[in-house]
Amino acid sequence: MADDAPYILDAQIGFVLRQAHQRHTAIFASRMIGDLTPRQFSTLARLHAEGPLSQNHLGRLTAMDVATIKGVVDRLRVRGLVETSADAQDARRRVVSLTAAGVELIAQALPVGGAITEETLAALNPEERATLIALLARLL
Q1: Partners of 83 in the beta sheet?
Q2: 34-46: pLDDT as tens digits
Q3: Do 46 and 60 contact (CB within 8 A), yes or no?
Q4: Which of 46, 98, 115, 132 gets the most CB atoms within 10 Å of its CB?
């Protein structure tokens, strides 16, 4: 952007990303089952895909800091969707795993998650969707 170019809010990446995120969040809230928040859904989906994980590793794989993943895991544990145990190699480390109820809920929620993505990206064709995801991933 040239020094003398006007600042146009609608052309700023942060503003556009925030609007897209707000739209996606509204779609998620209206469609997701089981009263799952996006962070809870991500946690259950990652455990479903990877199996039991240390709480710290789970936080890294779901892009949550230590305090946030602890809160998410605690709330899911209270709901009976995950359980925690001491790591066999390091008793200081907590291992998080899905319970039977967690397996059942995430199995039902994953297709809903896919439908939410479809609705969020409905204005884009398959090539545009792939390009968008690839370009955003490069920013991480």
Answers
A1: 97
A2: 999 999 999 999 9
A3: no
A4: 98
Predicted confidence at residue 82, as pLDDT, reads 98
C-alpha distances (whole Å) from 26 to each of 13, 65, 79, 112, 140 are: 20, 24, 23, 14, 24
Cα–Cα distances in angstroms (integers) from residue 140 to residues 1, 16, 65, 91, in the given order: 22, 17, 16, 33
For 13-138, CATH gives: 1.10.10.10
Q: How confident is the model at residue 90 (pLDDT cuts 50, 70, 90)?
A: confident
Instruction: Compute the residue count for the chain.
Output: 140
Contact (CB, 8 A) for 39 and 64 = yes
Give, in order, the Cα–Cα distances in Å from 31 to each of 5, 26, 78, 110, 119.
42, 9, 23, 12, 10
User: And the tokens for 60?
Assistant: 């890294």
Domain spans of the chain? 13-138
Reading the block at residue 68, the tokens are 């946030």
